[in-house]
Sequence to fold (124 residues):
Amino acid sequence: QVQLVESGGGLVQTGGSLRLSCAVSGRSLGDYVMSWFRQAPGKEREFVAGITWSDGYTWYSNSVKGRFTASRDNGERRVYLEMNSLKPEDTAVYYCAAGKAVGVRTTMDWYDYWGPGTQVTVSS
Fold:
């Protein structure tokens, strides 16, 4: 079992920055990928960024590439999402997810464990 808890969300103005954190507990994650998804009101949950726990390889959706950066701290057992140049369309609940996989995974069905989410609101 893996438990995930997100934090760091909040209200920020357009162009601002936030750093989300996902605390991980439970089993070892050596063969897992970690990703961030988001869900805006009335929309489906969508992939944002992913990172392999073992070697820190990252991948991003086109909508956030160049603005968001995923990272992980194996010792602290945390995954981070640094979000810069935020736009109103980034407003959503952001979820941390973990799944046992090798390589890039961007669809929800690969992920077995989810956190409760943290709200990010970007005002115009």
